[in-house]
């Protein structure tokens, strides 16, 4: 995946490799918090889309607006199914799962907002637990970029990459928006940090005139 020109900005995200969450109840609470946070953001995005589409339709043919709403609800359902399903298999194909996830995110979140999506997913496999946490983090980062990076949607683009480098998987979300000017804040950032800790990962960020890039660096699990 081609790089987006940016200057390093350590204030965008900070995290270190730290031990995972030993307490299973705390781990489950973290996932539930992310689920609730994601549902809140989903309803916000869906509500804005409904208002925009039906306002544009006015007194004209409402069937097109209803059709778009139906397709988007179906897309959100598919996205949530991918994020909530727990595979019985101990490992999951990265290409099969994350390509489907990127398609669902694009259809549910990005396309209705006029944002293009490009994805480059490297073949491999991940333990189910790592796959689940990584998918939640990826969706959070893409949604955050869609909400904040593009005051003007002209030429808006988000690139998603997943590649194996050395002893780690690198999952990157890069946009060509206005560039973050400070650290990620709020509930979403705290959940991201917690999810990263739960899989021994760290977050790296850089921002500049060319946009913002956040990379999840996740060590490859021992066989």
Report on the structure:
Its EC number is 2.7.13.3. Helix content is 48%, strand content 21%. With 223 residues, it is of the alpha+beta class. It contains five helices and eight strands. The protein has one domain (7-219): 2-Layer Sandwich (Heat Shock Protein 90), CATH 3.30.565.10. α1 (24-57) runs parallel beside α4 (128-148). It starts with 6 loop residues before the first strand and ends with a strand.
Q: Look at the structure and give the mean pLDDT.
A: 76
How much helix is in the residues?
Answer: 40-55%
Structural class: alpha+beta
Q: Judging from the principal axes of the Cα atoms, what is the shape?
A: globular
Main sheet: which strands, in order across? 1-7-8-6-5-3
CATH class: Alpha Beta
Largest sheet, described in full? Answer: 6 strands, mixed
Question: How many β-strand runs?
Answer: 8
Number of helices: 5
- The CATH architecture classification is 2-Layer Sandwich
CATH superfamily: Histidine kinase-like ATPase, C-terminal domain
Question: Topology as H/E string?
Answer: EHHEHEEHEEHEE
Nearest-angstrom radius of gyration?
18 Å
Report the CATH topology name.
Heat Shock Protein 90
Unreliable stretches, pLDDT < 50, 5 or more residues? 1-25
Distance between the termini: 28 Å
**Count of discrete structural domains:** 1
Quote the beta fraction: 15-25%
């Amino acid at each position: 995946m081609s790089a987006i020109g940016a200057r390093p900005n350590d204030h965008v995200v900070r995290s270190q490799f730290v031990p995972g969450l030993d307490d299973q109840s705390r781990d489950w609470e973290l996932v539930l918090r992310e689920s609730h946070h994601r549902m809140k953001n989903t309803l916000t995005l869906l509500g804005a889309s409904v208002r925009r589409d039906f306002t544009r339709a006015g007194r004209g043919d409402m069937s097109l607006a209803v059709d778009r709403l139906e397709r988007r609800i179906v897309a959100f359902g598919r996205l949530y199914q991918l994020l909530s399903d727990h595979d019985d298999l101990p490992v999951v194909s990265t290409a099969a799962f994350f390509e489907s996830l990127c398609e669902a995110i694009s259809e549910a979140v990005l396309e209705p907002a006029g944002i293009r999506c490009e994805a480059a997913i490297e073949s491999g496999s991940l333990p189910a637990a790592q796959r689940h946490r990584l998918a939640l983090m990826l969706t959070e980062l893409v949604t955050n970029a869609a909400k904040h990076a593009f005051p003007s949607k002209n030429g808006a683009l988000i690139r998603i990459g997943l590649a194996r480098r050395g002893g780690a998987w690198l999952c990157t979300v890069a946009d060509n928006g206005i560039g973050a000017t400070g650290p990620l804040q709020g509930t979403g950032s705290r959940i991201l940090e917690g999810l990263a800790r739960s899989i021994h990962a760290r977050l790296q960020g850089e921002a500049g005139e060319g946009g913002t890039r956040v990379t999840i660096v996740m060590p490859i699990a021992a066989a």
